[in-house]
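new request in #modeling-help
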Amino acid sequence: MRSDDTTGQAAAILAALGGVDNIDEIEPCTTRLRSLVRDAGQVDVGALRAAGAYGVMINGRVVQVVVGPHVDLIASDLDDLM
Amino acid sequence: MEQVDDDTGEVPAVGASEDGAPSAHKYLAVRDHLARLVAHELKVGDAIPSERTLKQEFGVSRMTIRQAVDALVTEGVLVREQGRGTFVAPQRMDFEMRLTTFGEEMRRRGLEPTTTVLAAQTVEATPDIATALEIDPGDEVHFLYRVRSADGTPVAIERAWMPVALVPELLADGAPTSVYDRLRELGAAPEWGEETLAADLATDVEASLLGLSAAPAVMRAERRTYAAQGAVMFSRGCYRGDRYSVWVPLRAPRPALVPRRRGDAVTEEDSTERAPVGAGGGRA
């Protein structure tokens, strides 16, 4: 739950979503990151799971990644990475 | 990412708190500041900065400070202790969704909880249960089927599945009075979860278990509960529509994160890719 633990996780999640260039926006919800990606084909579900996601829902260009309650920390790290 | 335009130290909030609206931004700024302190600097049980300190730092009224603190108390991030001050709450897990058990919720309402166990056995996971628990179909799961009553009146039916691999001993002493308590004993303490609610009509079996004659309205709740080890319980609850309401704290969504580069320089990449992709169904 500490910040340095989530930095690597945030980087892995971002990469699995296809990298910064594939992101239109990411909205942090209570236990999920709700991302609007440019190309859902670039999203690597296996890599998201490997990065610690508890679930991944893809609907069109919307990719929801269930990460649990430390979503705020991951979001802060993502903000730094983006 | 958006900044409140005024420089905090200087601007006195005289009048702003009087009619409420103008202080909304300031209240959010204070709230976010405190939330950040809790997330990154303070530990559980630490006191937050005094009202006086915050007043000076943000140049806002005491009412605005209180509003910000109240919001975090409601979210469960902070706790107030009378006469002592305001502190970082023990855990962040139960803000927004309360990860409590039937027994805990009933006692909090002054009702006596009782349970009738219809089944407590170890079975093979069906595909939907396996998906919910992130295991393979056919893997063993503990299954618990219970009717829950409040002051003797049946109000809910609950079926729950727990992976044997994570908690082999769950049913060793029979059906536990509280699954969450038992999970804590077994080192798989529930930490967070997600729940989906839906309105429905009870089936005949459910209506009879709940002691109701006609097919009554019920609320169905599907919950996944997580411990540090992963998904530790999946449950399907069926609650009497006439006895239940759901209380959900709401907070404004956090601003979406947008790649910085794109914000600064909208470039060739943007204009070429937007049009074709956008057709797929973009922002709501």
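bot summary: The longest strand of chain B covers residues 113-124.
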